[in-house]
Amino acid sequence: MQKSVFEFPHQINEVVVSDTFFARAYQETPARHRALIKTCIARLYDWYGGGKECGGRIESTWRGGFDSIHAFQPVEFCVVLCDATLESPARLLAGLVPALARGVRNVLVVRVGDSPWPSSLLTALELAGQDLAVDMTADQACQLLTDLSSSTASGLVIDLGVGAEEVDARLAKTSAVGIYSPVFDGKISVWMDDSQPVDLEALAFAQPDVSCAVHGTHTLFSSDKFSYDGDDFQTFLVTAGDAVFVPLSRVNDALTQSRIVLSPGHEGCWIWPDLRPEQFHFHRTAWTIGA
Q1: CA 33 to CA 238: how far, in whole Å?
Q2: Which CATH fold topology does 10-58+68-182 show?
Q3: Is the pLDDT reported for residue 225 higher than 60?
Q4: Which domain of life is it from (predicted)?
Q5: What pLDDT score was predicted for residue 52?
Q6: For the purposes of burial, counting CB atoms within 10 Å of the CB of 64, is it exposed (0-12), middle (13-18) or buried (19 or more)?
Q7: For an engineered disulfide with 82, which of 45, 59, 65, 86 has Cβ 3.0 to 4.6 Å away?
Q8: CA nearest 220: which of 187, 188, 192, 186?
């Protein structure tokens, strides 16, 4: 029997973001900021293997006396959820681009809340080639998840802030839909070095919803999102959170404390380290004897 082609519920057509808003957002985003977005997209495509095989089948024989078959293919859909508190194009792309790079054909970005989309987010979606985005109330988003969980389609829901417990509750009854909720403590620390400085203006664009503690060389700040916290590197390491921006010479030390370490040139980038390529695949496994 031929498998039916997946489609998102037709109700989403009533809340799709119009092309007019995408076009306006693109015009409102300066070229230098669009360049930062493009760099982020390119890095994520490279990291997640865009252009590589999307599915496959691996047959193996094990020394324990059995054989195995591992079959995998892209999930049929991916939903990227965010709410109005997310204003970072970099963190949004870090959830979206991996799905596109891994060959997921049906991708939907859902923003829960009633505030306008920041221009940077819509521009990020457009530059990534993602034109299917919707505005939803919390009730509408919950209904969407319920509808998806009641289907037979395989999928992945990436929750960038709507609420892991609510998402879990809506999808708990299906084994075909995975859930990924990244952990981020909301802190970014920066070590400034005259020889390889971090571009704070670019960082402010990419992370407008996060405050940043700057250490090292004292510098003037163009935004009140930055604060100066001293020039002792050990204090920097101890107080650093999940994400830091440091010069190349400090990367190895920073990796002992933080999960996301980015050097100058990556101010507009982001990655969720535990969002792995295989999470965008639906996996089937067989163990046999005597194959």
Answers
A1: 32
A2: Rossmann fold (3.40.50)
A3: yes
A4: Bacteria
A5: 61
A6: exposed
A7: 86
A8: 192
